[in-house]
Design a protein that fits this description.
7-stranded mixed β-sheet; SUCC_ACL_C; alpha/beta; nucleotide-binding; succinate-CoA ligase (GDP-forming) activity; nucleotide binding; Rossmann fold
């Protein structure tokens, strides 16, 4: 098992024929992703040749679903057109839309995430690296060759820190890694992923990566305390960030004591989460927790 994405997932790529879409489609195919088509109204009816297969291009997401049974779409569409692309995918009945595009206006994100919920479409992102179930499927831009299948579930606001923790724990491996994005409005939260990992029999431990700004980590801590029985290890980026400064992601804004790394660390630790001071220390805490857990099971 895994969460949200498996080897059975059939993936469309909206914007596949653009520069970024082509590059990452090639990488996703190399990782074993079952990419069944691209979407571009101006190039419908054509196909694009990759290393070992030709991928058809459809005029609409609905056409792609009807022809292939696709249940996932990855969106590489410029910000001005991203809202329309996601609305189209949701209206067509896609189950999962992974929105890689950054720079989408917040009001557009509010509109398409809300609409997607009414249609039963899960949104990952926007402004995210996507998600990967190592050895099965990769939907987005996460490097597929820096880790292996394992029993750690990872949910992260930060793409770069997603990659670092995957690499730090490459010898242990992951069930699924989800980069939810760091914008003020995202379609899938830490809590959504915590619930899914809690229910996933292949996930033994959960890593949660947060960052300054907002209260998502505090809300996740409350959820962990009430609902999560698996061990959780956390890391919060931004301990040295000045108050009131926007740091990187649009959602990472600190105001007074609200949204600070310290406040988030304290909330997580109060919920029983071991929080690392650096990514490397976080990886060490994961290994220590797994070792203790293994000794307990053996004992």
């Amino acid at each position: 098992m895994a969460i949200y994405l498996t080897k059975e997932s059939k993936v469309l790529v909206q914007g596949m024929t653009g520069g970024e879409g082509m590059k990452h489609t090639r990488r996703m195919l190399a990782a074993g992703t079952d990419i069944v088509g691209g979407v571009n109204p101006r190039k419908a009816g054509r196909s694009v040749d990759f290393a070992d297969r030709a991928v058809p291009v459809f005029g609409t997401v609905r056409e792609g679903i009807e022809a292939t049974g696709a249940d996932v779409t990855v969106v590489f569409v410029p910000p001005a057109f991203a809202k329309a692309a996601v609305l189209e995918a949701a209206d067509a009945g896609i189950g999962l839309a992974v929105v890689i595009t950054e720079g989408i206006p917040v009001h557009d994100s509010v509109a398409f995430t809300g609409h997607a919920r009414t249609k039963g479409t899960r949104i990952i992102g926007p402004n995210c690296p996507g998600l990967i179930t190592p050895g099965q499927s990769n939907a987005g831009i996460i490097p597929a060759d820096i880790t292996k299948p394992g029993r750690i579930g990872l949910v992260s606001k930060s793409g770069t820190l997603t990659y670092q923790l995957m690499y730090e724990l490459r010898d242990t491996g992951f069930s699924t890694c989800v980069g939810i994005g760091g914008d003020p409005v995202v379609g899938t939260s830490h809590i959504d992923c915590l619930a899914a990992f809690q229910d996933d029999s292949d996930t033994e431990l959960i890593v949660l990566i947060g960052e300054i700004g907002g209260d998502a980590e505090e809300r996740a801590a409350a959820y962990i305390r009430a609902h999560v029985t698996k061990p959780v290890v956390g890391y919060v980026a931004g301990f040295t960030a000045p108050e009131g400064r926007t740091m990187g992601h649009a959602g990472a804004i600190v105001s007074g004591s609200s949204g600070t790394a310290r406040a988030k660390q304290e909330a997580l630790e109060a919920a029983g989460v071991r929080v690392g001071g650096t990514p490397t220390e976080t990886a060490r805490l994961v290994l220590e927790t797994l070792e203790v857990r293994g000794d307990t099971v053996r004992g």
